[in-house]
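User: My advisor asked me to double-check a structure prediction for Lipoprotein before group meeting. I don't want to rely on an old file, so could you generate it fresh from this sequence?
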Amino acid sequence: MMVAGSALAGCEGLAPPADGGGPSGSGVPTAGDGRAANPLDNPDGTKPGLAAITSTEDKARARALIEKVETKGRGPRTGYERDKFGYAWMDSAPADVPFARNGCDSRNDLLKRDGEDLRFRSGSDCVVMALTLHDPYTGKVIEWTKSRATEVQIDHVMPLSYDWQMGASRWTEDKREAIANDPLNLVPVDGRTNSSKGDSGPASWLPPNKRIRCAYSVRFAQVSLKYELPVTAADKRMMLEQCGD
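Assistant: Sure, here is a fresh prediction for Lipoprotein from the sequence you gave:
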């Protein structure tokens, strides 16, 4: 999804963020993880989904990863425009980005990566017309068709406006296009839930599905480390908290 037009207020030093209006905890219709991979075992984002991190060993690995993330204050949003990260969803990101320049745009690449029971446009092996999605953010199973396109959106785990405020404003165009189209930073999810996120960091917004919050924090950290982007101190504290015992 393209980042919402206005920034959401941060919640530094406060309690864990609200669930964004969606179901949470035991209220989530449990659908399992589908084919989802543990993000600790999927460092390039080419495997589908975000499987829950549940074992004591994996939570320790997750905290060790998050601890490596640098922190700083969030800078101004001045000058941010979605187009400064390339048009959505381009297939011409730098060649070292997985799935780039394969003849299929990033949105369809991600639908193919995470969807099940894929149905394509006649004569195409790229344009997805329908699929079944195990949405990690809500725990729901979504039966999606292209006629209801916005029901599934592609989330930038580390939002582009957040990236801009944490240092991407000084990057080259190629590097901004890379983070905008990198499957490590992209996950298809329930559209309404994604819209509630805006450009929030983990201190202000976490997926409604509580069992996935450590995995989400790991993925946020993986993007941060790959692109050498810091997060706020409040965001890092919240990420570590999600992977506690």
